[in-house]
Amino acid sequence: MTNLTKILTTSAMVLALGACATADRVEKQAEAVVAKEQAMMAEKKAEKAEMKAMKAEKMADMAEDKAMMAAKKAKMAEEEAQAKMMTAEKKAMMVKNPMVGGAPMMAKKTIVENASMASNLTTLVAAVKQAQLVETLSGPGPFTVFAPTDAAFSLLPADVTSSLMMDENRADLQKVLTAHVVAGNVTSADLMMRIKENNGSYTATTVSGDALTFFMSDGKVKVADENGMVATVTTADVMQSNGVVHVVNSVLVPK
Question: What pLDDT score was predicted for residue 72?
Fold first, then answer.
């Protein structure tokens, strides 16, 4: 091989190596550009994801704030409702009840508690105790009681009253007393309305399962038992914590 050939071969090799190096450098540069672009895209995606997360967090905070406001409003509404209820209860308690037997009747007290204060209901109270109905008539009810006075009981034959107060006749006494009780709060206004709606006469079923018939006479509410005995409501609408009492002037005897 001549020197010229060697020189040319060497030059060609150098050029080839240079070309390879340049190609490698270009390829690496291209790879670096691609990697940089990918990194920028990943960073951009990360920024978008972060912004999305921040937006979601903000929306969650807003939702939490709304929930807190709703809870606050609900609490305020509940407190307002309770205040109104307490006011209504207070007003109801302040409503002046009619006196019975010279004693004030308290709307916050039970039927038994108020009856025990009335000087003209002593026989009824004694009968309720003997019949073991104190707990029942002290319960939540509500009950509507047509309460016979002592004078009303005195109209019965003495032996009948004495017999009813015997232990062995407790079931009979319970029936007589519960024949004076109607479930619910039935005021005199309710009775008059029902009498009017039923063409002048209204019949209600008592707790004992017996019937009481109501009608109007001389502007007063009258009540008849199953035997035709008629009593007059002498004191109406004595409000109790567990119902209402209407004082009557006759004992209502079931069949």
Answer: 86
